[in-house]
Amino acid sequence: MQTALISALIALIFGGLLGGLLKLYFDYNSKVVTDLWSKRYEAYSKLWKLTEVLPKYSRKDEVTFDELANFALAMRHWYFETGGILLSDQCRDAYFAIQIKIREVISKVNEEYKEHYKDIVIDHVKIETDNGESITVYDVIQKLCSNMRTEMTRDLLSRRRNFFSLKAEQSAPDSK
Q1: pTM here?
Q2: pLDDT of res. 176
């Protein structure tokens, strides 16, 4: 009887300690996730706005390579001053894909047109994709921006229809 009482007391103490530690752990993780979400929302909203220069619908006419270079600089400023530290791995990869492609196309056009490249409209220049398709610079960079915005919505869980679902729902390819 005494052994059973001691065992029950030890189990109660151990269970209480374990329960307290688990509560502490989950409370801490909840706070970290909540704080990270709030900071990401604020930072991602600013990055989202920067991509307004290259919308899919209601296209902005006559975007020049100079504007594209300024867009890349504004994104770089955002990365180091506002939100680069908050990017998830997937969102960071999408961000860098944009920066790399912009640098690549500006370098290529600069070689061909020298100092006059800044005034050239990006919708008038086509580049070849990896699969051999010829596509305008506008469309290439716009698609990369769309991919990054999709990653931002996944990070923020803002495209979920079911509040209790842990997995973000996949959107239709054309809905970006």
Answers
A1: 0.76
A2: 43
Taking the domains of the chain in order of start, what are their residue ranges?
Answer: 35-175
Residue 172 has what pLDDT? 46
Distant-in-sequence, close-in-space partners of 172: CB < 8 Å, separation ≥ 6? none
Separation CA 152–CA 41 (nearest Å): 9
Most confident region among 27-36, 73-82, 103-112 by mean pLDDT:
73-82
* H/E segment holding residue 136: strand 134-136
Average pLDDT over residues 29-35: 72
98 touches 143 (CB < 8 A): no
Name residue 134's beta-bridge partners. 128
Beta carbons of 46 and 157 less than 8 angstroms apart: no
Is the dihedral angle over the CA atoms 169, 170, 175, 176 positive or is it negative? positive
Torsion angle defined by CA atoms of residues 51, 38, 95 and 141, in that order, rounded to the nearest 10 degrees = -20
Cα distances from 66 to residues 69, 71, 157, in angstroms, run 5, 9, 34
pLDDT tens track for 49-59:
999 999 988 88
